[in-house]
Structures are given as C-alpha cells and as structure tokens.
Amino acid sequence: MRTQVVIIGSGPSGLLLGQLLAGIGVENVILERVDRDYVLGRVRAGVLEQGTVDLLDEAGAGARMRAEGLPHDGISLAFDNRLHRIDLAALTGGKRVTVYGQTEVTHDLMDKRSAAGLMTVYDAKNVLPQGFDTASPFVTYEKDGVTHRIDCDFIAGCDGFHGVSRKSVPQDALKLFERAYPFGWLGILAEVPPADHELIYANHPRGFALCSMRSEHRSRYYVQCPIDDKVENWSDERFWDELRLRLPKEAAEKVTVGPSFEKSIAPLRSFVAEPMQFGRLSLVGDAAHIVPPTGAKGLNLAASDVRYLFSGLKEFYLDKSPAGIDAYSGKALSRVWKAVRFSWWMTTMLHRFPDTDAFGQRIQEAELDYLVHSQAAATSLAENYVGLPY
Ligand code: RFL
Ligand code: PHB
Questions:
Q1: How remote is the C-alpha of 110 from its chain's centroid?
Q2: What pLDDT, on the 0 to 100 scale, is given for residue 361?
Q3: 297 lines ligand 2 (CB under 6 A)
C-alpha cells in the first residue's frame, strides 16, 4: 500500500503528529509494536507546558484536558525544612503549566484517531524504515506472520528511546551525547488527595522527593532511590515513611497515605542523538533524546519536535517547499539542548550524589538559597519550567 507519511510508534509524539497531519489532509499510517492497552498502561509524565496544551488543542484533542487538567501557577522548592514557592505566573508574565497525565493525553489522541478512521497497526513486528536516503522511502513490517510494505513520502521515527528508527540510520552519521545518573526514581500512584495543590520538589539529606498529582483525588509521589534498588524492597509503608522524612514538617503533615496501585523505578539519563533528520527519516521525541524527569520536560520536548516537524511537512505539502523539513533538525536541537541543560541542572541541584562531599553540599545549599531569594535566578527557573518559546 501507499500513504504520505508513515509514523513509527503510537506514543504521544506519533499520535500528535498523526492528528495534526490529518487536520491538513495529509494521509498517515501509524505502526506500533505493542497493543493499545500496553501503550496506555505506561505511567509517565504529568506536567504540560502551554505550548503542548496549545498543540493538543490544534490537534482537536484538547477538550478533556481543558475540562479536567489542573492549571498550576507555581511550584514549591523544599529544603532546610521549609517550603519556598516559585510564582511561575508572576515571574513569566502570566504563563502557567497544566497538570494532566501522559496516559490521558495518549488516550484522548487515540480516541480522536479512531473517531477519524485513521489507520493504526498495533502489534506490528519487525518494523523497518528503508530507502529514506531516496525520494521513495518505504517501511516493512510483519503482522500475524505476514510481511507488509508501505511506500510513502516521509517516515517519522516516533518510536521512543528503544525504537528501531535511530538504530536504522548509518551509525557513523550519528553523534551521541550521554550522561547516566547514579540513582533512580521510585514512583507511586495512590488514590489519595495530594499533599499540596501545587508540586513540591524537595532536596533533603536523605535524597530527593517530589509531590505531584494526577487530579484532586489522585497523587503521584517520587523518592530518589539507589540505581539498583528493587520495587519489592519498598512496601507502601516504607515508601510513605521515607517520603514524609524528606519533606518539611508543614508538607509531611499534609500527606494522606493510602494503598498504592502503581509502583515502579525509573533510571535517570540525559541523551541526545544528532542530527534528528536523515533524508526522508526524522527522529522525534524520545527516539532522539532523553532527559531526566526532574524538569518535567520529556513529553513537552516530544511535543515541540512535533510542532517543528509538522510545520516542515505542512510547508512541503502545501507550499511544495522542502525548506522547513531541511531546517527541522537544527531548529529542534536548539530547543532540545536548552531543555537538556535545564533538566540536568534541576537534577544536579536537587539530588544527593554518591560522591558529593561537604564542599559540594554547601554549594548546593547556596544555589537553592540564591534561587529563592534572587528574582533574576527564580525568573530563569520559571521561564524554563513553563517552557521556552518554540
Ligand atoms: P514513547 O512514549 O516512548 O512512545 C514510543 C512508542 O513507540 C513504540 N515503539 C515501536 N513501534 C514500532 N516499532 C518499533 N520497533 C517500536 N519501538 C518502540 C513504543 O511501544 C511506544 O508506544 O515516546 P514519545 O512518543 O517520543 O514520547 C516521549 C514521552 O513518552 C517521554 O518523553 C516521557 O514520558 C518521559 N518521561 C517523563 N517525562 C516527563 O516529562 N515527566 C515524567 O515524569 C516522566 N516519567 C518518562 C517517565 C519516561 C519513562 N521511560 C521512557 C521509561 C518515566 C519513564 C519510566
Ligand atoms: C509527574 O507528575 O509524574 C511528574 C511531575 C513533575 C516532574 C516529573 C514527574 O518533574
């Protein structure tokens, strides 16, 4: 068969791109390695920048987010047994973030896609992008033991960090940048009201902790844990005790405990692959870059990549010009590296590192103190947190 754009991966970046393309009449097919429920079962990001919110609206998938998402005007940094609020809106001329889970974003985009009758092949095995150094690329895959081929104009590699797209480009054409952090995040979801109406990022001698939420009745909490730790080592009781030890008293007292219904450990990593464009194949989102979740940037970067690629494809199809596609990698990477820097900086400032000595600890304390008492420093955090302009 033939289509205009083959999208590999039905995570948020693939689904969002597919929906935007369909909106301007560009045919696309999504090939996804696993099934729909598996994709929806992954609990990940929770904070949307305004640019991501606007893009979901443009894709026609913003209605539930508008109704159920929680707009936040600030966050708190906790250290030295106190909460220090950063007023994001006041520091950025009224910008804010929206708390709405990635699972819900994916769900809304999938519903829109099925309602529009757009083709998605789930359980597509051995997906392989080919011929993307020519003007006639194609993708092969297997489904129920039968091999299929889809010819197209462009291939969008939206298949995450472990996907096939990045692996399919000539490896000597790729430049990789990587930093692994010597700890992980243990996260839980529980059907209890959040400790605060805004997020709390805590630096504590026992390690980092984060209070987040999915709704006014559902909390998402994280604690920094050793990289080789196992979920089985963490009963709910141990988790709640550890979380409360890492929070200032005023926040710890407001933590409502209850049974967790999800518990997992995520490693933290910074990773960038350059370039993000190889002829007719583009890498989008986690396929090209990973950030540690401390700045809440992973999903938002996937959305900004989609915005740049979509405008390039739109220019190609509507104005018959390849200029936008040719500029994709440069534009996307410029924004990616700023978010990589911000996420690395937040991670470095808020976590305990195994090799932090007394000097390093005082530097961390001085940085946090400076941040909450200097308008210039707080403004820098705020403008990055709400999202740099596209
Ligand atoms: P995704 O969401 O990984 O989706 C990729 C999709 O591609 C499919 N796929 C394939 N399909 C066909 N053929 C293949 N060979 C394929 N290989 C893979 C996969 O099944 C999947 O459906 O990438 P996308 O769309 O770029 O979206 C990026 C975001 O998901 C990601 O940046 C964030 O979730 C990162 N992230 C977090 N970001 C935040 O902002 N805040 C968080 O709290 C947060 N927590 C997380 C995270 C990422 C995690 N990962 C990657 C393990 C927690 C975890 C555990
Ligand atoms: C989340 O709610 O999962 C979340 C929020 C903020 C972050 C990371 C994760 O920085």
A1: 17
A2: 86
A3: no
Cβ of 346 closer than 6 Å to ligand 2, yes or no, is no
Q: Please, what are the domains in the chain? A: 5-50+58-70+101-177+269-346 (3.50.50.60)
DSSP string, 56-72: HHHTT--HHHHHH-EEE
Ligand 1, pocket-test mutation among 20, 35, 44, 127, most atoms within 8 A of CB: 44
State the DSSP code for 257: P
Is residue 72 part of the annotated active site? The answer reads: yes
Q: What tens digit of pLDDT does each residue of 18-75 get?
A: 999 999 999 999 999 999 999 998 888 899 999 999 999 999 999 999 999 999 999 9
- 47 CB contacts (<8 Å, ≥6 apart)? 72, 97, 98, 99, 199, 212, 296, 300
> Residue 318 — φ and ψ, nearest 5°?
-90, -35
CB 303 within 8 A of CB 12: yes
Regarding pTM above 0.90, the answer is yes
Contact 338, 384 (CB under 8 A): yes
Q: Which of 225, 286, 336 to mutate to test the pocket of ligand 1 (most atoms within 8 A of CB)?
A: 286
Of 211, 172, 168, 175, the closest CA to residue 193 belongs to 211
Residue 208 in this model has a pLDDT that exceeds 90: yes
Between CA 67 and CA 337 the distance in angstroms is: 33
Give the dihedral sign, CA 181/365/245/252: negative
Find the ligand nearest to 46 CA.
2
Ligand 2 atom 10, closest CA = 296
